[in-house]
Amino acid sequence: MKEILKWIDDHKDQMISDLEELININSVEAEALPDAPFGQGPKDALLKFLDFGKRDGFSTENLQNYAGDIEFGKGEESIGIIAHVDVVPAGSGWDSDPFKMENDGVYLTGRGTQDDKGPGIAAYYAMRAIKETGVPIKRVIRLILGTNEETNWGGINYYVKNKKMPTMGFTPDAEFPVIFGEKGIVTGTLSLSVDLKNSAVKTFKAGNAPNMVPDYAEIVLDKSKINLNALSNLVGAISYKENGSEVVISANGKSAHGSTPEAGENAISILLKSIEGVFMAGDEFIKFLEFYNTKLGFTFHGEGLGVDFEDEKSGKLNFNIGMIEKFEDKINLVLNMRFPLTGVTKEDIKTQIEKSTIDFNGSFKQTGGENPLYIDPESKLIKILMDAYQNQSGDMESKPMVIGGGTYAKAMDNCVAFGAMFKDDEDRMHQKNERIKINRLMDSAKIYAEALYTLATEEKVL
């Protein structure tokens, strides 16, 4: 292992340079093009990563720009690393260009440094270290690159349908030490019937993605239909401006990953709580406003809708209101929920939500979802990954865990999430000023190198 670890240290500058090239590509999913199913950015990021593999003498394959892979080695069994090159929208409030990586000698800042371009590069350099030091291995090592993990997994699903998946592996898209369980995920649109033809509300829209806590919300009101005196009571994160016959009220929050809504400050909830006194009696929006503020606002488990399901292994359902949009006869709320490993199904959640919103003829349409993942924490796969983490980090206290985040580990058998965020790192995934410590990038590469080497040389893992 010493030779492999030294190789990683010797290639630190190139690792950072390669990561910079990836970060500088805006790979937020966009409109599909004939040769780019998720937009030009994800395609460009995939091609750039595959170019690294070609440059370094690996075998590469591009599956119609849906996904691709980089691999080496021989054997009947294979070890897979599944990463993704797409990112969530940048959002607002950055101190630097999110798509131009900043390196201050301690941190690398840019969208994707933590999620998931940085960890993907760390894993790539781990497998490159094994290849270039020439240590003998018994199994194939393959890095799989998806292109729309942050949305609907179309890229990795295409890959699964068109190519045999590895025997076992991990995804570097969560946190250390190792994730043996992932909650299920339900994403969908809750449509509530509200007659707003005569309401003061002209437009109301907020949020960038279902799995992000929205950091900005804005509502436009008809100036002639509101209590203007109440505007003077708007303080804190709330501001307003008069624009002719309209009043524009906005709220600033704090973004966070949808799996940990409590780590953010939902701008939708902040705004709606602050404007209760603005509307005149009889405005139909008041009915929705009261419902939201009593049942949904500032809740993290869906308790107001009765979906705060819980089990002993994974805790309570996580509940995020990621987006909102107003129409003349309805309001749509885009919900992103992470449900426990046992005791509840997606259908149970849908039924309960519609039951709790019957006064609004509530209809919940699922637009995405994943079943829970569970691998025995006593299995050899988990033990090998834990040993690699402990040997390289010195952390002997942390234990395997369950998370609310959903990762590519669910795309193949015998796969778990494994890093790359450490427990004392600041989590800026899906937030402004996303960044990773340079020394943590190096530590991750070394952990992955030991894990891959052991997985590729053990006589029997499964």
TrEMBL record:
Keywords attached to this entry: Dipeptidase, Hydrolase, Metal-binding, Metalloprotease, Protease, Zinc
Pfam families attached to this UniProt entry: Peptidase_M20
InterPro entries according to UniProt: ArgE/DapE_CS, Bact_exopeptidase_dim_dom, M20A_pepV-rel, Peptidase_M20, Peptidase_M20A
Any one biological process term the GO annotation gives: L-arginine biosynthetic process
UniProt-recorded Gene Ontology molecular function terms: acetylornithine deacetylase activity; dipeptidase activity; metallopeptidase activity; zinc ion binding
Cofactor dependency: Zn(2+)
Membrane-spanning segments: none
Gene3D superfamilies, sorted: 3.30.70.360, Zn peptidases
Signal peptide (UniProt feature, chain positions): none
Protein family (similarity comment): Belongs to the peptidase M20A family.
Protein name: Succinyl-diaminopimelate desuccinylase
Organism: Ezakiella coagulans
